[in-house]
Amino acid sequence: MNDAMGKGLIVAGLAIAAVGLAITAGLPLGRLPGDFVFRRGPVAFYFPLTTAVLLSVLLTVLLALLRR
C-alpha cells in the first residue's frame, strides 16, 4: 500500500513540475481560446474551460500509460 502511494506522489510531483516548466517556457495555460473572463467593474470572474479540458485529457493519457 505504501509503495503505491509513494509512486502516486512521485507522479503527481512530476506532473506539477511539468506544468510549471511548460508555463515558464511560455505555454499560455490559462489564456487559451475558450477560457472565459467576465469583468464588471472591480469584480472579475475567471472560468478556464479550455485549460481544464486540455489538462484533463493530458492527465487521462498520462495515467492510462502509467497503468500499463
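Second entry:
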Amino acid sequence: AAAALPPEPPAGEPGTATLRVRLREDGAGNMAAPSASNTTRRFRGTDPPAAVYAWVDSLPGQTCLAYDLVTAFPRSVLPRGGSGGEADGGLLTLASLGLTPQAALLVEPRD
C-alpha cells in the first residue's frame, strides 16, 4: 500500500489537504476498543480518495481489512473509488470532496 502513495507535498503548499485519521484499537490491534491513535499526513487537493485509503492501509497497527473512512459531522463516507481514471470520470479529488484545507477522518470497521 505504501508504494501506491503519492509524494507528500511540503507544508504550506497551496491546495493541500491535511488529513488526520483516527485509528481505534486496543493493544491487540482490534478496531473496536475505546482507545485511539491519531496520525496526520498532507495530500494534494488533486489526489484521489484512493490515495487516502492506500495511506491508511500502510499505517502500522491498521489491521482492519474491511473499513470505511468517514467524517464525523456531518457524517459522510469517503468513497473508495476516485483513482482519477475513466471509470469515475476523473472527477473525485480530495478538493472536490471538501477535504481541503483540512479534515478529520475516522476508521469505521464494516461488519
